[in-house]
Amino acid sequence: MEIKWIEDFIALAQYQSFSRAAEFRNVTQSGFSRRIQSLEQWVGSELIDRSSFPPVLTPAGQLFREAAEDVLAKLYDTRAIIRTEQRIAGKSLQIAAGHTIALNFLPTWLKALSRHLGEVRARVVPTNVHDSILMLVNGNCELMFAYHHPELPLHLDPVKYEHVTVGIDTLMPASRPNPRSAPVFRLPGTKKQPLPLISYTDTSYFGRCLALLLGRATAAPALQLHYESDMAEVLKKLVMEGEGVAWLPRSTIASELEAGDLVPAGPAAWNLDIELRVYRDSSNRNEFLDELWHYLRAGLTSLD
């Protein structure tokens, strides 16, 4: 039996809807249903009356809910005590962020934050989007940084998980320049000579962004997959070595563009703007986090 099964069950009891509870728990409806079934198998009884609409708890489900809420409350209280004892002294933050954000945005942002709010100690955990969301939902971080596009939402409950936009990044095609400072690999390419593409894995967030961008194109570019990775820094290194064209966040290649070591591989029509957001659990209250959130909500998103 897993704790997340109990959390799923309580969410279902609250929402009385498999789809809404699944969305709240940030899981597919089919996956959510399987977890409820696994809990029922562990208990040895049906907890949900699926013959009614909306679904309601069976008598066994009502009894189990009372015990489950009591057990979870005690676990959460104990966890809060332990985490408080293990927190970094002073003004501190536990931050979950994608690798690109952790490398290229957070160092400068945290330095600026300290100028406004005094010394800030931060523990940054670079991870993928899925694990970042889990850290936020499970209470393992105060802040989560993630990219956002309206057509590729993260499906976090906006009431429970507040957000502030702290910047705009641009996913843009980049290439090594030739001696005339033009791109070696220029979009859109040709059928006879498709451009070697250094791309993201399909399941990564940038991979989904790239699929969205290319799907919007009036004429598909001629591309041939050359290398693939889920990390922008890997793609950047391969582009720097002249291996092909890749769509990279402008924040990761700003200095290379300025120095002329990389150039855009096509006009701005091939770019995709994406928000950089910071999220918090609205129920997680502490004086410093509230002070920080006040600054961000007031529009001091860059803290310049």
TrEMBL record:
<dbReference type="InterPro" id="IPR036390">
    <property type="entry name" value="WH_DNA-bd_sf"/>
</dbReference>
<feature type="domain" description="HTH lysR-type">
    <location>
        <begin position="1"/>
        <end position="58"/>
    </location>
</feature>
<keyword id="KW-0805">Transcription regulation</keyword>
<dbReference type="InterPro" id="IPR000847">
    <property type="entry name" value="LysR_HTH_N"/>
</dbReference>
<comment type="similarity">
    <text>Belongs to the LysR transcriptional regulatory family.</text>
</comment>
<dbReference type="InterPro" id="IPR036388">
    <property type="entry name" value="WH-like_DNA-bd_sf"/>
</dbReference>
<dbReference type="InterPro" id="IPR005119">
    <property type="entry name" value="LysR_subst-bd"/>
</dbReference>
<keyword id="KW-0804">Transcription</keyword>
<keyword id="KW-0238">DNA-binding</keyword>
<protein>
    <submittedName>
        <fullName>LysR substrate-binding domain-containing protein</fullName>
    </submittedName>
</protein>
<dbReference type="Pfam" id="PF03466">
    <property type="entry name" value="LysR_substrate"/>
</dbReference>
<dbReference type="Pfam" id="PF00126">
    <property type="entry name" value="HTH_1"/>
</dbReference>
